[in-house]
Amino acid sequence: MELSMKVHQFARGFWEHEPSLSLGCKRFRPLAPKLANTESGSITASFDLKSFIRPESGPRNKLGCSDEKRETTQVETQPGGTRWNPTQEQIRILEMLYRGGMRTPNAQQIEQITVQLGKFGKIEGKNVFYWFQNHKARERQKQKRNSLGLSHCPRTPPATSITSIITLDTLGEVEREEDSPYKRKCRSWGFESMEEERRYCKEEGDKTLELFPLHPEGR
Amino acid sequence: MELSMKVHQFARGFWEHEPSLSLGCKRFRPLAPKLANTESGSITASFDLKSFIRPESGPRNKLGCSDEKRETTQVETQPGGTRWNPTQEQIRILEMLYRGGMRTPNAQQIEQITVQLGKFGKIEGKNVFYWFQNHKARERQKQKRNSLGLSHCPRTPPATSITSIITLDTLGEVEREEDSPYKRKCRSWGFESMEEERRYCKEEGDKTLELFPLHPEGR
DNA sequence: GCAAATTAATGATTTATTCAAG
DNA sequence: CTTGAATAAATCATTAATTTGC
To answer: Which regions are flagged for Basic and acidic residues bias (chains A, B) (predicted)?
Structure first.
């Protein structure tokens, strides 16, 4: 309690000339100033903390974090809808892909799906990603609930409909059919694509383009 | 068993003219061709499954998945290292940021950190993200292990070093200082940034640029 | 000393859980 | 109550330490 207070003060004094070590928009008091005097002084030289505030484009707006955040640092906060509201067609296609055996699409797959589904309404890559995550998990727990509720032999699927068989049986083997004998490598998240594309894109950053015309759908 | 086999055959026959519904590189037999005949035929019209193989750029290489993957669809598979191997400087900076209170940086923060850390060695955004995830989790479990091993009162930190206090106490309050009263919104994954930048980048996709000169470090 | 074998750390993914919008 | 979004926990996999037999 008292010691942390001391550290706090110390750090404050040390970093006084900086507005604060604000990275992005969340502000926090920088502590632990042991960077400069440990082993290699070259770090301090080339690691410019100031550029962390905002790499290019000088001081944009002093301290306007809470208001400014909604416009500059946020990307997906359009006026109106916050979270993705899938259309019927999008759901249908996603379910088709799921039934087709797709469980965790990688970044490229996600991108392609996003492009396709974008024809039916606004959608982002992360929506596709989350949909598969959630659908898989909830299908799993639904199935568990069923097998427990029926108190049935949990290893034999009841073979009710084709769909269930596709989901459980056939595509299970399809899933692992050619995922490389080595290991699963090219996985999702989309970071890799982003990393690559960053080199060509000159950090445009601030516009919030409306890519898809946002079909008036509503399910 | 038998039914799934039937479905399998049926699907195969139905999709015979397609090489396979290969999305990205993982191949799987497309099943459940119930898209066309359900409710709205307009989907089939504009949802072009062929473009899933590869949206632009025609047939690149027939069936050459297993070999081609290492060069064209993979991004991070440079000759040599597969997974990120952080340099001393990178670790030092990351730990500094962690001690400074950063726990789950959002996409923009990750990008900026990545740029900074790129001065000391090759790094991607996802590496930064994963580092924070792992570090946070393992710091947590280490702490839990300690509190259990010492069989001490788990509510009073022993106040051993400054660092521990910074990590646990002071920055805990800093963490929630200005993360918006609303909710955590601008979060990581990098999908949002990717989504945005995709509009400017024309799917260059195939080069494996060496952005940073990969300092000969070795720890 | 030095590789092969083993172990410890830790980067990368997946799964479970939780939060919150509608 | 359903489900999109986000985080935490658990797990997998790979690289560096290290031990060990020679």
So the answer is: 58-73
